[in-house]
Specification:
Helices cover 11% and strands 28% of the residues. It is mostly beta strands and 266 residues long.
């Protein structure tokens, strides 16, 4: 075919059927279907069904565009300069290149430096200097109405000889935010977090003859899942019996960028 059919951008979306597109707030989520607007129904365990207790509010799509216009947004979608989140409005950004400045994260206009020295998410990287390894210029801003960020991770994927797919996760920022716990009554996180995380990461295992891809994952500190957040918001004597369930009480919201593909020389 001459086309890599798996070379796609990343977005996320909701799948509600009650005219609440984009309503992804865990504490007030009304469910996907009309019957789920009843809290006890929303908490029901429907086995393999994608609705009820096993469901979640859904995600959001993000687009980096030069302006807020239909043409600019669709052009960004076409070049895959897009990202997805699990529902909060984290703003992740990824560039790849060969010579980002050491102080790139301290610059007032990080994006301008990223475009000047590299290529953005959704693009192809090639033609590096001999002996050089790709650098990933990564950053993310927290959703100011949600939890702080815990860490940034670069995920690398490649196909080894024999056709076996591999991937590896690198923690690149936020290592100091790893320890803490969630108060299950208030949702407060006892550890630290960050409003803004940034790093310039160089692949320590780069093989210039091997095609690979890289994407960024931004992870929030743990917070309450909707099924427990909405239960604990009620007085203990008013909580339905369905609040006593096996669903996780906490989650970690996150965002993923579209990948950047490294293409070795022919």
């Amino acid at each position: 075919m001459g086309v890599n059919s798996y070379k796609m951008g990343v977005i996320a979306s909701t799948d509600g059927h009650i005219s609440t597109a984009g309503d992804t707030h865990e504490h007030g989520w009304p469910g996907h279907l009309a019957p789920e607007t009843d809290f006890e129904t929303r908490l029901s365990d429907r086995g393999s069904s994608p609705f009820g207790l096993t469901s979640n509010p859904g995600g959001l799509a993000g687009v980096w565009a030069v302006e807020n216009s239909r043409d600019a947004i669709f052009e960004s979608l076409r070049r895959k300069e897009v990202f997805g989140t699990t529902g909060t409005r984290i703003m992740p950004r990824l560039f790849a290149g060969w010579d980002f400045a050491n102080n790139a994260c301290e610059m007032d206009d990080r994006a301008a430096h990223g475009y000047a020295r590299g290529i953005p998410m959704g693009g192809d990287l090639s033609g590096g200097p001999a002996g050089a390894a790709p650098q990933l210029f990564v950053s993310a801003l927290q959703d100011t109405h949600a939890a702080q960020l815990q860490k940034l991770q670069v995920i690398k994927g490649w196909i080894a000889d024999g056709g076996q797919a591999h991937y590896k996760v690198f923690d690149v920022a936020g290592r100091e935010n790893q320890k803490g716990e969630v108060d299950l009554q208030t949702g407060a996180w006892s550890g630290t977090g960050s409003a803004d995380l940034c790093a310039v990461f160089e692949d320590p295992e780069f093989d210039p003859a091997e095609a690979s891809y890289y994407y960024l994952r931004a992870v929030e500190v743990p917070t309450l899942r909707w099924s427990w957040a909405q239960c604990v918001a009620l007085p203990a004597d008013e909580r339905p019996d369905a609040c006593d369930n096996d669903a996780p009480k906490t989650i970690q919201e996150m965002a993923w960028t579209s990948p950047i593909w490294y293409l070795p020389p022919d």
